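The instructor's notes for this session suggest beginning with a concrete chain rather than abstract definitions. Hand out the sequence below and ask the class to guess, before any prediction is shown, which regions might be ordered.
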Amino acid sequence: IAKPVIEMLFPDKSNGRIPIVAVTGTNGKTTTTRLIAHLARFAGNKKVGYTTTDGIYINGNNIHSGDCTGPHSCETVLFDPTIDFAVLECAHGGLL
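After discussion, reveal the predicted structure:
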């Protein structure tokens, strides 16, 4: 029973890895994060998860509001099985 489930989760012998973009800096992090996520979603035809100071978004839907630039928010995005591209806004405290 496990074989069909694994083949469904990892088609064509993929390894389950996804591209991750981390955005940090002084000004413009949220705007840059949203822009990268938008480009990946529409130009790259990806299911994108991203974190910002506004919340956590999975494929364009807000799943949690508030300042979500820390490590727990990143885990939420990276553990979501539906995404295939992650953009993570990282505040200086989240990097530590």
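Then share the key points. The chain has a mean pLDDT of 88. The first strand starts at residue 20 and ends at 23.
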